Amino acid sequence: MGRVLRGFAHYPRALPIGIFVAIAALTAVGVWAIEKSQTQARVNELQQIATAASSALERRANANTAYLRAGAALLATQPEISAPMFQTFVGQLRLDANFRGAEGIGWAARVDSAEIPAFEARMREIGADSFTVHPLPRSDQAYAVPVTFLQPLTERNRRALGFNMFSERIRRAAMLEAERQSRPTASGKVVLVQEGQEEAMPGFLSYMPVFEVNAADGTRRLKGYVYSPFNAQDFLESALEGELPNRAHIQLYDGDIQPDNLLAELRVGETGGESLTTRVNVGNREWTMRVQSLKSSMLSEIAVIVLLAGLVVATLALAIAWLLTRQAADARQVIGILEEQAAIRNSLTRELNHRVKNTLANVLSIVSLTRRRASDLDSFATSLDGRIRALSATHDLLTQSEWGTTPVRSVIEVEMAPYALGRESIVEMQGPPVDLAPNDALSLGLAIHELATNAAKFGALSVPDGRVEVVWDLVSDNLVRVRWQESGGPTVPQDRPRGFGTELIEKIVAHELRNPVDLVFEPGGVRCTMLIPVRTRSEFMIRARRDADRVKKD
Are residues 274 and 369 both part of a single domain? Predict the structure, then answer.
């Protein structure tokens, strides 16, 4: 737990984002549960629709079957079936709404192949002027079953008169099955002759065989069929009228679900939801009915409400958590600033103590050496004043850089300013940009001061034609070489006594720079070479070391 809290402290944005993600996840789970229950509800609704639709179709089929059974019972008792008698029979049935979807009721007599011409003649005699049996039976077929009567005799139904239904494979199979079982049997998918074109909407026929019984031996012979032709789409719409909710799409197939087997469909919208299939028995034939729910929106209304509410709550929680964590972060930042300021103040105090001790040590060394070399009070004061001023000038540079690094050129320019003022041509300085640490800059400034003072008294700066050249270059990444060379001045005596400046440079400066100083009094002029370390800030600043240590700990 503590590790988690520390993690939130380092990453304050993680807490509000975590709260938002948690609430969003709970909302997503809720929406998923709601959608799952809605899906199950739609499946249950489809099951109810499928049950109701299949019952309606079977009721309509059973009603049609009842009419055909009644017709078969009546026609089986008649020695001869005439047009008026059949018309009277159909009229007495008083077909009601249960017979909607059918083209009517028809009679198709069995006619032996040899009797077809005589049959056609009798039909013309009773008023069917252009009656012909078509197509004629094949040589392997013993009889034809032409449409003889069809009521009501509409213009559409007139097209079917004389059509030999036994010549077509699907109709023939249904008639043979009806004869075998002696019960109403529906055919497969066909295009009714009434439609007049092969591309018309599909339909089916329901056949009931009519037999005549031989009283002598009790055998029976097929007399014909009483049948009903149906447009499949009309049959489906009439059967389900008023019972189909507007939340489902129904397709009716003759057999398996295949595009070629589609009989009819009721489309009330775009599909895309759940679906189920069920079997429907119509006229002793199994059909397949597929019920599909309509394509709905991505989410239900309840799920959308829950989702919006969850997003609102998550957003509010995010805003509140963000404000609280921001306040906590600001508070931690203020505390951190105060702690850093206190640490800086302590570091500056330690640095100041360190600098003051170093400076006082240099001053004491200068005073001690000056006192040993001074012959009187005035010379002591003059020498001491110049050297203290050299330290002060370098200190001013260090103050301007906030006791950071100081360029070599700046140190040399400050110390040479009193001698090069108005006489730039006699002092030449050249070298790359190199920065020195504070203590190293003080030592270099003190050495340049001593060399310049000596040159002004006895060397190149004491005569108009004298020149001083100060050149520096990097020996390595952490070491710079500074060379002092005088020329054009008085000849330097080789037996001259060693003075304070020599001891100051060779002892104090060399000690502070941690490298020997090569000071040579050549006849042509003084030459001095110093090696000065080039250090990074972390090597000489307490605050920098403390910051580096803190970064490592983090």
Answer: no
Range of the domain at 39: 1-296
Contact assessment for residue 493 and residue 481, using Cβ atoms and an 8 Å cutoff = no
Task: Tell me the pairing of strands 406-407 and 285-294.
Answer: unpaired
216-247 residues labelled b (16+ CB within 10 A) or e (exposed): eeeeeeebbbbbbbbbbbbbbebbbeeebeee
- Nearest in space to 438 (alpha carbons), one of 344, 547, 513, 519: 513
My answer on whether 286 and 347 are in the same domain is no
Q: What torsion, rounded to 10 degrees, do the Cα atoms 82, 87, 93, 96 define?
A: 150
Contact predicate 243/53, CB 8 Å: yes
* CB atoms inside a 10 Å sphere around CB 187: 26
308 located within any domain: no
Q: How many domains does the chain have?
A: 2
Residue 494 has pLDDT above 50, yes or no: yes
What is the arithmetic mean of pLDDT over 94-102?
A: 62
Same domain, 227 and 89: yes
Question: What pLDDT band is residue 342 in, cutting at 50, 70 and 90?
Answer: confident
Examine residue 169 and state whether it is found in any structural domain, yes or no.
yes
> Torsions phi, psi of 225, nearest 5?
-135, 135
The answer on 344 and 292 residing in a single domain is no
